[in-house]
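Workshop exercise sheet. Pairs work together: one partner reads the sequence aloud, the other fills in the structure field after running the prediction. Swap roles for the next sheet.
Pair: D.N. / O.F.
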Amino acid sequence: MQRKSDKILLDINNPTFQNGWMALEKTEGHRVLDTLKKIQQLTWDQVYRERGLNWEKISSITPPPGIPAVYSIRITLSSRALVYREGSYMRFLFVSQNHDGTYGKK
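Structure field:
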């Protein structure tokens, strides 16, 4: 049974996310790592309320098959990540310094 107090588990194994992360400038990549460490210390309830992460459902893109909804989070001051929740896991799909890219806009 999932409890609100359970800590978040991260899945950063998606190759698209990893490629985007590795393409960031070195200092920006380190900031992503700092945010990932911070997220691991939070509960889901805290993530939803954390103003710095700005958890936001994205309606402008169709989620991949089997995923009910995707969300954008502010992973650094200039980068956003596309994620979804699956049980205790926050699964990362994509990271970009281009905010429009995260929202599915051109």
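Discussion prompt: The CA atoms of residues 4 and 45 lie 6 Å apart. What would you look at next?
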